[in-house]
């Protein structure tokens, strides 16, 4: 399918906070209560529309376990957006946010948009982290914030789409260098039409040269 | 790099300190030298040491080498050395490493960074090509080294495979393949394809990424083979195409998750990749191994995908007349001269075409049915029958299995195939296909043939009682089977015995007891007597114990090391798995147990029927319930509406009552207790007061006008008197002060002139006296004086005239004032007529009020009757006093509203 932009996302956060479930809910619109531990990273993709433009999201869901940290770090650099997830029913996952954020900031490009997500908002009775605390943390560190429930799908779409909106705005403002794919952003085929025809022409010439 | 140290720890005894020291020195030089040449030499030295001192170089130099890849990327030579060194370190490491997480971490850093390096090298390659040719050579070296390194890194390591993919490897590799001329390209294309295979094989995440990145569409161009390359099938091209086909297969492999495979199959059809592959399939001059792999690839692209299967059924070979591709392929399958692997591929293709394809199965079976046989052209059915009864055992086996695939999970076609009749030698009656199969079976042909036929028969009659009956109907079949099973035969015959046991078992398990001689019970007795239960079960077990069984069970594609090993079909192994247990149970069960089971079944059925009855009852009741609920809803809605009207009417009643009280009160005050006016509508009272207020206003207006009139009158009279005064010329009026002053001034002037005249007269007298004295000498002067005086007199008279003129103008202004007065009088008259009109209106509204009173009386009557009705309906009507209290506040609002209405009227 043709798209205007392609954004690469990563999902990070402690193990068991519901990263894979968020991705599954977003890509497949379903919830799987029992989910295997993610090994390394898993890939998912979906098309969304922002400002009337088709945007393809490629999402890498990372393993939360400490032992995979070195692998998951490799993905920070090439991502345009990150969903940093904690579990509102487990305070320790909230307490670890600083470490996650440091890690992300250290390894990612400086323009990466980070969305803070307090997941499992459906489990209100077991809540350990107040919404205000999440908001305060986000404010303090310049993140966007949202509480979601991968189970009920509440705010899941919004979390992914709002992150994309933020990236899109940054592109409009010229903050991102969209020609550098290392930033996790790619212009779609029809938007880079002039570029691609040029490249195609060159390719043809090269091929011709090779034959001679 | 801890893991290297960890690994090294165990071997540290064997390392030489001199080597470690040298490497340390070289590393220092790489890190600190400012001259590129020095660094280059140091890296070259590290490279030469890297094979011998793998561990040491790995532990100490890795970081430096990675830094070189980043900082010295402008120098292709040093890059080449660095990559070679890394390759030496990591590639030899491969066998020793066991996947631990820390290992991966170490690997990862090498992998990611070199991946980046390769990307850059690839980029640079593009630029170099555009420039001088010599430089391109250098760039290629690095790129190719990078490819080899990545190949090593990605082997069997999913984490690195994913990271490499994340770093846009797919895009780069596909670009390089395109740049290098796809399948016509050299070893670089091969390397790229091998790396792609590494990245995608058994890595569902990367496969998903590959699909989502729309890279399948880019594979299509790989298979656009021009016709012009006549005989241009170089070994490299064959290798490249082989890998390309494998890549397609990786994406749609039957071992992938069904959803993932299905979506890849869909996009392969949508982008035209399948069509492209079918073109190769039907093209001439394609090398046999490429053709074989293409057939296998097409097989997996269509497997289980209805759309793709339908498309495949419609493909025709470009022969004259055009033949369906399926027919052309089947011709190869039953052709002894075709290579074995090709024949296997065709069988696989046919199986995949029929996999979960009821439509395709019906089409194949229909070519065998008497009504649809077309004598003119060769059909698939004809070819299969030909294969079934040919002298080539391989053809027999392939045709049997192919036909079995037309029957899998399709009881309809199993029944249809029973109708197939075969024409034998002239003069003899036609024979059924089923009969013919059993005949060949009993003729004792090759094991392969018999295994094939037995698999076909098992598939055919399983889960199809009619077919079982048909099979048992032939009196020779059961004795043949029991003989086969009970005989003590050699090793080669064991599989056939096992299959015979399975066939007999199916005859028991799917028996509907329609044949008296071969009921379940009788067959079991037969087994017990002739074979023995234990023996039977043991023979049945021969199938799964066969060495080739488990291999066939692994994957759908038929792959056999030699034609002799071609014995098991994948789908058949599934059937065996399904049936072995149930048949064993069925055979072991005694007749009593069976009877009991029957009874249990019956009671269960009875229960079932009872349950269904209840279910229906519940369903009916449910429907009734919903109907009633709807009714209740309707009624409650109606009730609510009624309630609303009642409250409305109650409030109306209350309103009327209030009005009544007000009027009563008013009447009491006024003392005018005329009985007709007792009930006065509140609205009209309001109207009346409004009119009264209006009247009052008019009255005040009237008095105001009258006072104005009197004022005007006084003004007029005062003006009149003024005028009178001015005409007399004495009375000083405010308007005439100026005139009076002037008159005064004139008078003063006249007085002064009179004084002058008298002075002159006295002077004259004096002069006369002097004349008298001086004898008439002064008479002339006197005349001059006289004329002067006379002139003065004339001016004075003129002035008097002017004053009189002024007086006249004053009288004119007075006349104008009188006119104004008349106008004012007429306005007064108009106002008086208006007033009378309003008075008339007042009387009219009074009349209206009377009418409304009549209406009110009617309404009251109505309300009374409604109340009566409500009482009759059983609705309790609250005490009127309570209502008064409750509705008081509401009432006020209502009244206000109604007041507004009254005014707008």
Automatic annotation (TrEMBL), chain A:
<dbReference type="Pfam" id="PF00071">
    <property type="entry name" value="Ras"/>
</dbReference>
<dbReference type="GO" id="GO:0005789">
    <property type="term" value="C:endoplasmic reticulum membrane"/>
</dbReference>
<keyword id="KW-0342">GTP-binding</keyword>
<dbReference type="GO" id="GO:0015031">
    <property type="term" value="P:protein transport"/>
</dbReference>
<comment type="similarity">
    <text>Belongs to the small GTPase superfamily. Rab family.</text>
</comment>
<dbReference type="InterPro" id="IPR027417">
    <property type="entry name" value="P-loop_NTPase"/>
</dbReference>
<keyword id="KW-0449">Lipoprotein</keyword>
<dbReference type="GO" id="GO:0005525">
    <property type="term" value="F:GTP binding"/>
</dbReference>
<dbReference type="InterPro" id="IPR050209">
    <property type="entry name" value="Rab_GTPases_membrane_traffic"/>
</dbReference>
<keyword id="KW-0636">Prenylation</keyword>
<dbReference type="InterPro" id="IPR001806">
    <property type="entry name" value="Small_GTPase"/>
</dbReference>
<dbReference type="GO" id="GO:0016192">
    <property type="term" value="P:vesicle-mediated transport"/>
</dbReference>
<keyword id="KW-0472">Membrane</keyword>
<protein>
    <recommendedName>
        <fullName>Ras-related protein Rab-2A</fullName>
    </recommendedName>
</protein>
<keyword id="KW-0653">Protein transport</keyword>
<keyword id="KW-0333">Golgi apparatus</keyword>
<dbReference type="GO" id="GO:0003924">
    <property type="term" value="F:GTPase activity"/>
</dbReference>
<dbReference type="GO" id="GO:0000139">
    <property type="term" value="C:Golgi membrane"/>
</dbReference>
<dbReference type="GO" id="GO:0001669">
    <property type="term" value="C:acrosomal vesicle"/>
</dbReference>
<keyword id="KW-0813">Transport</keyword>
<keyword id="KW-0931">ER-Golgi transport</keyword>
<dbReference type="InterPro" id="IPR005225">
    <property type="entry name" value="Small_GTP-bd"/>
</dbReference>
Automatic annotation (TrEMBL), chain B:
<keyword id="KW-0653">Protein transport</keyword>
<dbReference type="GO" id="GO:0048211">
    <property type="term" value="P:Golgi vesicle docking"/>
</dbReference>
<dbReference type="Pfam" id="PF04869">
    <property type="entry name" value="Uso1_p115_head"/>
</dbReference>
<feature type="domain" description="Uso1/p115-like vesicle tethering protein C-terminal">
    <location>
        <begin position="786"/>
        <end position="901"/>
    </location>
</feature>
<comment type="similarity">
    <text>Belongs to the VDP/USO1/EDE1 family.</text>
</comment>
<keyword id="KW-0813">Transport</keyword>
<feature type="repeat" description="ARM">
    <location>
        <begin position="60"/>
        <end position="97"/>
    </location>
</feature>
<dbReference type="InterPro" id="IPR024095">
    <property type="entry name" value="Vesicle_P115"/>
</dbReference>
<dbReference type="GO" id="GO:0006886">
    <property type="term" value="P:intracellular protein transport"/>
</dbReference>
<feature type="coiled-coil region">
    <location>
        <begin position="611"/>
        <end position="645"/>
    </location>
</feature>
<feature type="region of interest" description="Disordered">
    <location>
        <begin position="873"/>
        <end position="905"/>
    </location>
</feature>
<keyword id="KW-0677">Repeat</keyword>
<dbReference type="GO" id="GO:0005829">
    <property type="term" value="C:cytosol"/>
</dbReference>
<dbReference type="InterPro" id="IPR016024">
    <property type="entry name" value="ARM-type_fold"/>
</dbReference>
<dbReference type="GO" id="GO:0005795">
    <property type="term" value="C:Golgi stack"/>
</dbReference>
<feature type="compositionally biased region" description="Acidic residues">
    <location>
        <begin position="876"/>
        <end position="905"/>
    </location>
</feature>
<dbReference type="GO" id="GO:0005783">
    <property type="term" value="C:endoplasmic reticulum"/>
</dbReference>
<dbReference type="GO" id="GO:0012507">
    <property type="term" value="C:ER to Golgi transport vesicle membrane"/>
</dbReference>
<dbReference type="GO" id="GO:0000139">
    <property type="term" value="C:Golgi membrane"/>
</dbReference>
<keyword id="KW-0175">Coiled coil</keyword>
<keyword id="KW-0963">Cytoplasm</keyword>
<dbReference type="InterPro" id="IPR006955">
    <property type="entry name" value="Uso1_p115_C"/>
</dbReference>
């Amino acid at each position: 399918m043709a798209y205007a932009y392609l954004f690469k996302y990563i999902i990070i956060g402690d193990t068991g906070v519901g990263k894979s479930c968020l991705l599954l809910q977003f890509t497949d619109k379903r919830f799987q209560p029992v989910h295997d531990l993610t090994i390394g990273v898993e890939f998912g993709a979906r098309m969304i529309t922002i400002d009337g433009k088709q945007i393809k999201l490629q999402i890498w869901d990372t393993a939360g376990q400490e032992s995979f940290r070195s692998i998951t770090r490799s993905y920070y650099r090439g991502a345009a957006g990150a969903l940093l997830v904690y579990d509102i029913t487990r305070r320790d996952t909230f307490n670890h946010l600083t470490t996650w954020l440091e890690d992300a900031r250290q390894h990612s490009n400086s323009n990466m948009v980070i969305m803070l997500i307090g997941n499992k908002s459906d489990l209100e009775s077991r809540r350990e982290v107040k919404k205000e605390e999440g908001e305060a943390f986000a404010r303090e560190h310049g993140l966007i914030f949202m509480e979601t429930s991968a189970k009920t799908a509440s705010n899941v779409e919004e979390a992914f789409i709002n992150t994309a909106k933020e990236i899109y705005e940054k592109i409009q403002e010229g903050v991102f260098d969209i020609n550098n794919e290392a930033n996790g952003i790619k212009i779609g085929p029809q938007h880079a039409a002039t570029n691609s025809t040029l490249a195609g022409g060159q390719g043809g010439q090269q091929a011709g040269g090779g034959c001679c | 790099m801890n893991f290297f140290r960890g690994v090294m720890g165990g071997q540290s005894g064997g390392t030489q300190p001199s080597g470690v020291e040298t490497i340390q020195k070289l590393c220092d030089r790489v890190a600190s030298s400012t001259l590129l040449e020095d660094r280059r030499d140091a890296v070259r030295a590290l490279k030469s040491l890297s094979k011998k001192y793998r561990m040491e170089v790995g532990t100490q130099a890795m970081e430096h080498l990675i830094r070189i890849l980043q900082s010295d990327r402008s120098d292709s030579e040093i890059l080449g050395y660095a990559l070679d060194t890394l390759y030496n370190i990591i590639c030899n490491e491969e066998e020793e490493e066991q996947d631990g997480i820390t290992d991966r971490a170490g690997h990862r850093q090498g992998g990611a960074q070199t991946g980046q390096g390769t990307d850059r090298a690839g980029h640079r390659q593009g630029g170099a090509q555009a420039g001088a040719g010599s430089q391109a050579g250098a760039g290629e070296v690095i790129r190719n080294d990078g490819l080899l390194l990545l190949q090593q890194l990605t082997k069997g390591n999913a984490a690195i495979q994913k990271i490499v993919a994340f770093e846009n490897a797919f895009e780069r590799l596909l670009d390089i393949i395109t740049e290098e001329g796809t399948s016509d390209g050299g070893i670089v294309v091969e390397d790229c394809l091998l790396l792609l295979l590494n990245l995608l094989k058994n890595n569902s995440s990367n496969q998903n990424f590959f699909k989502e990145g729309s890279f399948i569409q880019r594979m299509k161009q790989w298979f656009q083979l021009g016709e012009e390359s006549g005989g241009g099938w170089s070994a490299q091209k064959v290798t490249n195409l082989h890998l390309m086909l494998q890549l397609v297969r990786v994406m749609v492999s039957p071992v992938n998750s069904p959803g993932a495979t299905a979506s890849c199959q869909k996009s392969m059809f949508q982008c035209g990749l399948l069509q492209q592959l079918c073109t190769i399939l039907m093209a001439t001059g394609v090398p046999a191994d490429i053709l074989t792999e293409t057939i296998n690839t097409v097989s997996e692209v269509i497997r289980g995908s209805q759309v793709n299967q339908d498309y495949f059924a419609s493909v025709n070979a470009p022969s004259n007349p055009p033949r369906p591709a399926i027919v052309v392929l089947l011709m190869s399958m039953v052709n002894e001269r075709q290579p074995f692997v090709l024949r296997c591929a065709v069988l696989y293709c046919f199986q995949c075409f029929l996999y979960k394809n009821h439509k395709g199965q019906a089409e194949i079976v229909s070519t065998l049915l008497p009504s649809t046989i077309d004598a003119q052209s060769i059909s698939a059915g004809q070819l299969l029958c030909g294969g079934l009864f040919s002298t080539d055992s391989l053809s027999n086996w392939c045709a049997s299995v192919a036909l079995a695939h037309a029957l899998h999970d399709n009881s309809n076609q199993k029944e249809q195939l029973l109708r197939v009749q075969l024409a034998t030698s002239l003069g003899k009656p036609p024979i059924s296909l089923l009969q013919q199969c059993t005949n060949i079976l009993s003729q004792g042909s090759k094991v392969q043939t018999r295994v094939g036929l037995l698999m076909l028969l098992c598939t055919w009659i399983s889960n199809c009682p009619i077919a079982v009956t048909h099979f048992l109907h032939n009196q020779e079949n059961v004795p043949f089977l029991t003989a086969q099973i009970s005989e003590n035969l050699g090793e080669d015959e064991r599989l056939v015995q096992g299959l015979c046991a399975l066939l007999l078992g199916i005859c028991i398990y799917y028996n509907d007891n329609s044949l008296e001689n071969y009921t379940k019970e009788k067959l079991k007795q037969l087994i017990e007597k002739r074979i023995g239960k234990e023996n039977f079960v043991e023979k049945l077990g021969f199938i799964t114990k066969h060495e080739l069984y488990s291999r066939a069970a692994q994957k759908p594609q038929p792959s056999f090391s030699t034609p002799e090993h071609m014995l098991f079909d994948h789908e058949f192994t599934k059937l065996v798995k399904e049936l072995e247990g149930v048949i064993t149970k069925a055979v072991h069960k005694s007749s009593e147990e069976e009877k009991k089971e029957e009874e249990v079944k019956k009671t269960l059925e009875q229960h079932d029927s009872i349950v269904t009855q209840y279910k229906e009852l519940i369903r009916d009741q449910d429907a009734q319930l919903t109907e009633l609920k709807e009714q209740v809803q309707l009624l409650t809605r109606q009730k609510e509406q009624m309630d609303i009207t009642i409250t409305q009417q109650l409030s109306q009643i209350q309103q009327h009552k209030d009005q009544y009280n007000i009027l009563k009160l008013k009447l009491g005050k006024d003392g005018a207790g005329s009985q007709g006016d007792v009930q006065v509508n509140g609205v009209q009272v309001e109207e009346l007061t409004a009119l009264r207020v209006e009247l009052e206003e008019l009255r005040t207006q009237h008095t105001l006008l009258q006072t104005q009139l009197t004022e005007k009158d006084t003004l007029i009279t005062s003006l009149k008197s003024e005028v009178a005064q001015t005409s007399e010329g004495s009375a000083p009026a405010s308007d005439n002060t100026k005139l009076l002053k002037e008159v005064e001034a004139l008078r003063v002037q006249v007085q002064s002139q009179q004084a002058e005249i008298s002075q002159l007269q006295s002077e004259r007298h004096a002069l006369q006296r002097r004349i008298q004295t001086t004898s008439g000498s002064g008479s002339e002067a006197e005349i001059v004086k006289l004329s002067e005086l006379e002139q003065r007199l004339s001016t004075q008279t003129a002035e008097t005239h002017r004053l009189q003129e002024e007086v006249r103008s004053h009288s004119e202004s007075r006349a104008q004032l009188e006119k104004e007065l008349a106008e004012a009088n007429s306005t007064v008259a108009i106002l008086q007529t208006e007033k009378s009109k309003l008075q008339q209106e007042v009387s009219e509204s009074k009349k209206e009020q009377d009418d409304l009173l009549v209406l009110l009386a009617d309404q009251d009557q109505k309300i009374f009757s409604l109340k009566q009705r409500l009482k009759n309906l059983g609705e309790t009507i609250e005490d009127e006093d309570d209502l008064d209290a409750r509705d008081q506040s509401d009432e006020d609002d209502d009244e206000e509203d109604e007041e507004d209405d009254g005014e707008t009227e």
